């Protein structure tokens, strides 16, 4: 793990760090200001939404949240998004693990070709595939349903690539020992590989969660009913209707953004580790 | 097969026949008799990806030769009519230009800001994890949420409008600039973390040797850091291009492709053509040709200009 090695090095004298801190702080302000502005606005009383302070809440009108929540079926959006996201995460964990295991450990003709084809699919933009995929979902009768939101995204190449790379670092001897002891392929996978892959599985779970929770285009295509809409879609509709009321808009935005930000704050390590793995491996 | 060893302590409990069978099984597995197991493991994932990613790539090509509206039962074959129409379509040309400008802006600014901040973070520093976490915040926040906030920030009542006196989202060029800045801002943390991991993989001895030979800070950056980061830069550029291809969500929530088509990236034009105008066949043509053109252009740029800069 590259990230830990650096902390061992001794720290330089702090005075020399001042210019660096200044630049980094300035960049941080640019990054954080819109978030402060979003939260502050969501807590303002309506008549003076466009008056300062902008970056730190001076008043706490929590009623904005209740008002925004009752203006659109946010609870239903939340439920749909939670079901979709959990379905996608579960699908990725199971299907990607199985596929990664085959690509990392099993021997069969065409293994490398399949892997390269999978990597290539990661470069394909959604707009190139969305029309026939949409058509397929309509024909299958999955329009406006959880099935239509989940099944087409049950597996993804990114998870397979991350898990395969991780599995290849596990010594083959461990597996052979278990095989010689009489364990079948499935038992080896479940009892030896999966427990050792926990960090990589955590990475895949975080990425899949963020992908699912923040996804917009696919739900936009395959749902039109409020009963099937996800939170990002609901937010987009909501902002169209309530644009004259910034405080309600921002309350809705906070509600739509918070779960993903929360998951990130808790599982930051898994995310950064995953990025390190994808980037440096090549 | 000397590697297959039966541990004596365990083997002792088994009959000779059992032991032989297990060794045989392990050997077979290693020689390449895994076809069935592999098929079973791969089938679920490949079915999903095959049906919803690979098949649609082919099907989009077929659709691009029809005048299908997305709903009627038959798809009328139209030959290359859609491609001819596209060649003379000002909307398509505009969208292509917007996508290229957007892609260039996002990759250039993204590489510069990501690399710059990563270099600053790549030395022992208090609060490193905090900075990294802060820069990553926009990456994990949904595109719709951040674009909603930016739409207000860059709107006429917002602080950017008030500070500069400009109508950022009312002018085609300024709107494209706003979209570019928003995308760079959203991707910043990703680029910083990617560059940071690449920087930390550079052996410190290289810098020490260069310093002994009298290389200054700028020279070390120019002669060691930048060349050694070339593979990561390639990765970041690809990542940025994909983000601009996928830039749909930000466009949808910030500008809806407007004003006057100033931010109508290819993805949005495909969506609008298919789902607002009901021209699935033509939308498929735009998707196919647009993807090929933009991909070709970035490849060309990489071959001609970009690569020499990094290698």
Outline the low-pLDDT stretches of chain B. 1-12
Quaternary state of this entry equals: heterodimer
List the secondary-structure elements of chain A in sequence, H or E.
HHHHHHHHHHHHHHH
Number of strands of chain B: 0
The percent range for helix content of chain A is: over 70%
Number of helices of chain B: 15
Mean pLDDT of chain A: 87
Strand content of chain A: under 5%
From the alpha carbons, calculate the radius of gyration of chain B and give it in angstroms.
Answer: 27 Å
Most residues in contact: chain pair: A-B, 104 and 104 residues
Shape call of chain A: globular
Q: Compute the gyration radius of chain A: what is it? A: 23 Å
Total beta strands of chain A: 0
Content-based structural category of chain B = mainly alpha
The percent range for strand residues of chain B is under 5%
Can you tell me the residue ranges of chain A where pLDDT is under 50 for at least 5 consecutive residues?
A: 1-8
Q: How do the helices and strands follow one another from N- to C-terminus of chain B? A: HHHHHHHHHHHHHHH
End-to-end CA span of chain A = 16 Å
Average pLDDT taken over every residue of chain B:
84
Walk me through this protein's architecture.
The complex is a heterodimer of chains A (about 280) and B (about 300). Chain A is mainly α and about 280 residues long. Helices cover about 70% and strands about 0% of the residues of chain A. Chain A has 15 helices and no strands. Chain A has helices at about 1-10, 20-40, 65-70, 75-105, 110-120, 125-140, 145-150, 155-165, 170-180, 185-195, 200-215, 215-220, 230-240, 245-265, 270-280. Chain A is globular and about 75 Å long. In chain A, about 45% of the residues are buried. Residues about 1-10 of chain A have low confidence and may be disordered. Chain B has 15 helices and no strands. Chain B has helices at about 10, 15-30, 35-65, 80-85, 90-120, 130-140, 145-155, 160-165, 170-200, 205-210, 215-230, 230-245, 250-255, 265-275, 280-310. Chains A and B meet through helix 1, helix 2, helix 4, helix 5 and helix 6 of A and helix 2, helix 3, helix 5, helix 6 and helix 7 of B.
């Amino acid at each position: 793990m590259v990230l830990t090695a650096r902390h061992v090095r001794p720290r330089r004298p702090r005075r020399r760090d001042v210019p660096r801190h200044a630049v980094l702080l300035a960049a941080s302000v640019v990054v954080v200001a819109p978030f402060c502005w979003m939260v502050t606005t969501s807590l303002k009383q309506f008549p003076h939404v466009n008056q300062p302070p902008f970056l730190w809440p001076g008043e706490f009108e929590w009623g904005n949240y209740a008002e925004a929540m009752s203006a659109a079926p946010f609870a239903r959006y939340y439920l749909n998004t939670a079901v979709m996201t959990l379905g996608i995460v579960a699908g990725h964990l199971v299907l990607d693990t199985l596929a990664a295991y085959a690509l990392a450990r099993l021997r069969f003709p065409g293994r490398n070709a399949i892997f390269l084809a999978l990597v290539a699919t990661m470069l394909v933009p959604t707009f190139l595939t969305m029309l026939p995929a949409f058509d397929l979902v309509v024909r299958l009768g999955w329009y406006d349903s959880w099935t239509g939101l989940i099944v087409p995204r049950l597996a993804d190449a990114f998870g397979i690539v991350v898990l395969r790379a991780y599995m290849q670092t596990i010594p083959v001897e461990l597996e052979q020992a278990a095989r010689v002891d009489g364990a079948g392929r499935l038992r080896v996978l479940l009892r030896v590989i999966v427990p050792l892959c926990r960090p990589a599985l955590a990475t895949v779970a975080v990425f899949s969660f963020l992908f699912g929770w923040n996804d917009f285009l696919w739900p936009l295509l395959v749902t039109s009913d409020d009963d099937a809409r996800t939170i990002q879609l609901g937010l987009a509709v909501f902002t169209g209707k309530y644009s004259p009321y910034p405080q309600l808009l921002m309350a809705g935005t906070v509600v739509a953004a918070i779960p993903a930000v929360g998951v990130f704050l808790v599982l930051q390590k898994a995310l950064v580790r995953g990025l390190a793995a994808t980037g440096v491996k090549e | 097969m000397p590697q297959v060893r039966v541990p004596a302590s365990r083997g002792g409990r088994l009959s000779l026949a059992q032991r032989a069978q297990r060794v045989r099984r392990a050997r077979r597995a290693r020689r390449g008799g895994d076809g069935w197991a592999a098929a079973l493991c791969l089938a679920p994932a490949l079915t999903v990806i095959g049906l919803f990613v690979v098949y649609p790539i082919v099907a989009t090509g077929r659709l691009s030769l029809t005048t299908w509206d997305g709903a009627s039962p038959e798809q009328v074959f139209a030959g290359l009519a859609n491609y001819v129409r596209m060649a003379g379509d000002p909307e398509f040309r505009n969208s292509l230009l917007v996508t290229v400008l957007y892609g260039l802006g996002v990759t250039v600014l993204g590489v510069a800001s990501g690399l710059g901040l990563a270099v600053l973070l790549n030395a022992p520093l208090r609060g490193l994890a905090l900075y990294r976490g802060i820069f990553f915040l926009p990456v994990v926040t949904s595109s719709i949420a951040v674009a909603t906030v930016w739409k207000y920030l860059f709107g006429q009542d917002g602080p950017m409008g008030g500070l500069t006196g400009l109508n950022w989202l009312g002018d085609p060029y300024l709107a494209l600039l706003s979209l570019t800045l928003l995308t760079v801002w959203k991707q910043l943390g990703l680029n910083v973390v990617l560059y940071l991991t690449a920087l930390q993989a550079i052996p410190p001895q290289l810098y020490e040797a260069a310093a002994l030979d009298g290389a200054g800070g700028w020279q070390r950056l120019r002669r060691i850091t930048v060349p050694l980061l070339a593979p990561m830069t390639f990765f970041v550029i690809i990542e940025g291009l994909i983000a601009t291809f996928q830039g749909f969500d930000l466009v949808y929530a910030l500008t809806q492709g407007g004003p006057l088509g100033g931010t109508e990236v290819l993805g949005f034009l495909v969506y609008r053509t298919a789902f607002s105008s009901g021209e699935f066949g033509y939308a498929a043509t735009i998707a196919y040709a647009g993807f090929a053109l933009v991909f070709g252009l970035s490849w060309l740029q990489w071959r001609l200009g970009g690569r020499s800069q990094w290698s």
